[in-house]
């Protein structure tokens, strides 16, 4: 014949259930923070990869377009123009358009700007230095225009006639692409977000001897 539980057993049972509830209350928030952190880091890495892939796409297209000539905007075009003016090379617009067409998991409106420039020996915009903060010489800036659904010229100049793309010439130029984007945290646990910046540099593919020297590139058709 079973005996009814004594009072101490009932007390221990209640204490154990209470301890489990306390442990769950402590551990559950920590597990949730860990889970959300994994999600946030995964989304950030997605945008890092997208940014890196985009600048490489732009650099590949730009490096093959040394002879594209100047931009094609006319003075009668609306301001700000959706195209590149003649004071900047068509190669810059080609790179920006390639980035705009490339599939990317990162929203285009999170991209703050793109720089297309003649790179110095260290891969940064001229003049010599180790920073992309200054875009002054042979450097063109593009920003995303949601209304046009494309990157449009924003500022800067770079004469297409000055590009040197001669084979075996030690002064053959390299073109650099910099993209800066803002990654927003989904949960807000880590703040508003972080700035992502990626850079890719490739040497211009050589042109024929008749058109590779500065000042001899064929005008854009």
Characteristics:
alpha+beta; five-stranded antiparallel sheet; 5 strands; 221 residues
Describe what this molecule looks like in 3D.
With 221 residues, the chain is α+β, with helices and mostly antiparallel strands. The protein has one domain (7-203). It has two helices and five strands. Helix 1 (7-63) runs antiparallel to helix 2 (90-101). The chain is elongated.
Query: What proportion of the residues form beta strands (DSSP E)?
Result: 15-25%
Q: Give the low-confidence spans.
A: none
3D shape: elongated
Structural class: alpha+beta
Tally of contiguous helical segments:
2
SSE layout:
Layout: H1 7-63, H2 90-101, E1 111-119, E2 139-145, E3 150-157, E4 174-184, E5 193-203
Antiparallel strand pairs: 1-2, 1-4, 2-3, 4-5
Short description:
This protein has 221 residues and is α+β, with helices and mostly antiparallel strands. The chain has two helices and five strands, in the order H-H-E-E-E-E-E. The protein has a five-stranded antiparallel sheet with strand order 3-2-1-4-5.
